[in-house]
Design brief:
With 624 residues, the protein is an alpha/beta fold. It has four domains: 140 residues, no CATH class; 124 residues, Rossmann fold; 152 residues, 3-Layer(aba) Sandwich (Rossmann fold); 98 residues, 2-Layer Sandwich (Alpha-Beta Plaits), CATH 3.30.70.1450. It has a six-stranded parallel β-sheet with strand order 5-4-3-6-7-8, with helices on both faces. The longest helix has 30 residues. The N and C termini lie far apart (75 Å).
Length: 624
Amino acid sequence: MSSLILTFLQRVRQWSEDARQQSPLSDASLPSAQEANTTPHVIFLVLRRMRMPLLVLISVYAISIGGLVLMPGMDDQGNPWRFDFFHAFYFISYTGSTIGFGEIPYAFSSAQRLWTTVAMYLTVIGWLYAIGTILTLLQDPAFKRAVTEQRFARGVRRLKVPFYLICGYGETGSLLVRALNRRDVQSVVIDSDAERIESLSLENLSFDIPNLCADVREARYLIEGGLQHPQCIGVVAMTNVDAINVKIAITCKLLNPGLRVICRAEMPQTAANLASFGVEHIIDPFNTFADHLTMTLRAPSVHLLYEWLISVPNLPLPKLIHPPRGAWIICHYGRFGKAVHRYMGFEGMPTVIVEPHAEQAPEGAVIGVGTQSVTLRAAGVDKAVGIVAGTNQDADNLSIILTARRLNPNLYLVARQNRRGNDPLFRAANVGLVMHRSRVIVWRILPLLTVPLLSRFLHQARHHSEEWAAKLLARIGDLCDGVTPQTWSLQLNATQAPAVDAALSRGREIRIEHLLRSPQDRSAALPCMVLLLVRGDEEILLPDEDIPLQSGDRLLFCSRHHSAARMTWTLLNENALDYVLTGEERPDGYLWRWLSHWRQGSACPPPQAKDVRTEGGAERIKGV
């Protein structure tokens, strides 16, 4: 018995030493990159914390069982009798747990009752100590952290659908996660702010988003978040610190070089650093907004096309924004003001800078605060056509807008919004165009994540004329009946379009117009159009519907909501494809084909029973 107890104690000590090496509660160094995906084992943490209570319980039970075996007693015949180890263990087990079945198998002697009394107090005290330690462990923040981390890693490992790893759940990250959720795209979130992570659980989302409060600079948390998961299709670094975004990008490029990385960068040197080691997409919110602002000046219809195609489907169509051309005032010459000033210069628009700090102001700027009437008058507000309030304080921007409007009611107003919570104020101010950094970033990122072909289409569309964009808007508006369209992409291969791919491999001619026919009524066209056809390195914008398709072609569709689901019948079902190609409905299955022939007056004979005969060692089957 003593040897068994010593062996068990040695095993518990060994488990505790293993837990010390793997537990985040110990002082051991962090695991290497190859071992970083090993999450803390909660069982080892429990054993480590419960080492002393377990030793106490084992000792109490060993003493109680051993003493009970030694205590003399008598059986029902008056003969001397003692407990064996099994029955002593059985009796102490229900006695120590306070269940109490009584004295078995015989009435106890005084010595046995005395020892039982001692054993009861020992076991109760041992259990109280063990249970108290367990309750303390359950309340330990480090233990809770280990359980949460292991649950998060397990949830990520169980994902069976493609997902994006979102690093940073601030205003930008939360908008992006909600936008992806509306498009049925799975995401995983890591953020260092506990309040932000807690707010994620309160979001009204259609499916669960695995999330963890952790420092995204640590490689092991990124790995637990799915950095090396086979279903991870990209990492989005959206923190508000450029240095952290750079660290995330470096980690991704080292641990999973083939993974697509989208990174936010607000400083030019950060963007150059990211580009130097191959980050695919670098998002600068200030340059992005300045680019779109000048697009509204140069080609407002192209800008509106962006909005229609990127917006959530089935919503009212946004209206055309057409700021006037002429002299503009830019208040505050920070990163945002510099970007707007530079892009305005590209368009040949005269600008006047208002900057309170003379050392930061460019030549010819008006030194002063834009919230004051005297400063705006000095900047020529009465002759300007528009004003940009670009400080990093929402109150100052609103004050600039109200002051400028009072001095010149005809001004076109553009304001920078820094906090999403001020949406009601900017709506009430009736600003012509609001620059919200988070929305601008999501606006730029969303097509990259959901429909990559859409980014290629928009890149080509911006180089077309205003007349071309206006005609396309009219066509889309009629097609979608006044609501925002759904954009989606398709590749003609055995996975996404098996029926079409099989028909093309047999040499059948399939044109774009065939895919746009309704599989229920081929004479009716689906409310859908093709925006882009990609064939190898060739890109065809707004291809003609009579273009023959080839296996491997990639198509970008723009359609009314749910049209993609209706087209799925044509893509997946060979009979539906034959119907839209030829107009003939082929019944599926022998019985339905026989009934079809019978209805046409040429019924084939009903199926005969199988006649299996053996001739020369071979089977002949008749009537099959």
